From TrEMBL, chains A, B:
Stretches the record annotates as Disordered: 1-25, 199-218
Name of the molecule in the record: Pyridoxamine 5'-phosphate oxidase family protein
Pfam families, per database record: Pyridox_ox_2 (PF12900)
PANTHER family listed in its UniProt record: 5-NITROIMIDAZOLE ANTIBIOTICS RESISTANCE PROTEIN, NIMA-FAMILY-RELATED PROTEIN-RELATED (PTHR34071), FLAVIN-NUCLEOTIDE-BINDING PROTEIN (PTHR34071:SF2)
UniProt feature, compositional bias: Low complexity: 1-13
Amino acid sequence: MSDPSASSSAPLSGTERTRHRRLREQGRTGREALFEVLRAGFVCHLGVVVDDVPMVVPTVYGFDAGHLYVHGSVASRSLTRGATVCVTVTHVDGLVLARSVFEHGVDYRSAMIYGVPRVLEGDEKLAALRCLTEHVAPGQWDYARRPDRKELAATTILAVPLDEASVKVREGHPDDADDPHDVWAGILPLATSWQPPVTDPRAAHHPVPPHILTRLPR
Amino acid sequence: MSDPSASSSAPLSGTERTRHRRLREQGRTGREALFEVLRAGFVCHLGVVVDDVPMVVPTVYGFDAGHLYVHGSVASRSLTRGATVCVTVTHVDGLVLARSVFEHGVDYRSAMIYGVPRVLEGDEKLAALRCLTEHVAPGQWDYARRPDRKELAATTILAVPLDEASVKVREGHPDDADDPHDVWAGILPLATSWQPPVTDPRAAHHPVPPHILTRLPR
């Protein structure tokens, strides 16, 4: 597996904070690239620092034009006020099988977002929870029972500004066609797709609602 | 979406460091549960602290009985010697569509590993790279060209001890069958599967090798 720092064809790799980008500077291209990555999934990895040690927590997210909303009770309990978090969303599209082990890698799309999160309350929290729910499970905000006062109090939503982020995409075939080791090379794609819904036996007296049935494969 | 701290049926959530488990204390069950999660994937999210800010980097991994091996150039450049990292591996198995928005969640399997990584060199590095390559792309270590001295020098492999880890699994239907809001409920499964290999046009004179063709769906 090649070193991400050594080659632009590198496998899955992160972005140094020092090379971070302000979305305002990236303009529409950068912002649209970020939204594309965010639209393609609903689980992120939220990184916080607890007693000088990193903690990486998988959690669900939603977003609008200005903020990422994450469901973050564990993280919020550990959060120092004003501390920056890192949220990473990654889609793995396939294995890059090169002629050399060194050029092996992963086709992927990834976004890293840095920001100081705000714990939402009141109407803001409700609106963010709706945004998050509709991103993760479109149609359910109107179909399921909305949270009551007690449930809302037991829910923690963090808003992370979408100002500082970087997007990385690696796609296509391996880059070592000129390698003297002349063997098969290519891509082994990895696909993620929704499967037919499985009805809870205790809800079998209801048909599967159309907004679930028509959910497009991701 | 319910608060992970409020319910065992909670959606995707992390594990507090304060509730961490030593694998030795968990015995065979804990260790086997960890290996099951690690076997089911090949991309992790590596969390490190850089200038008091968390950085979460997606990268490939392999493992043996005692260590997780991660491909970590970006992280290793930023790593403070002796600093603890957090590596999280997450598999999303489906959406839990409950009667109430509050009980919505995700069926998932996740492992969080804490440890002080060691940058490997020499024979240890080569052995770990082989382990990692064979985990990510079984059969390729013998089929592709192995790294030469220069490539090996340009590769960074971190070894994280598999001593401190926690595994979380959420499976099955929503837990709110007694909710007064009587609507359809169930699971929308999410499946990840390998697709037929795509041959690099510049390698079309070679057949797809059997070890790629027979790769089982994950």
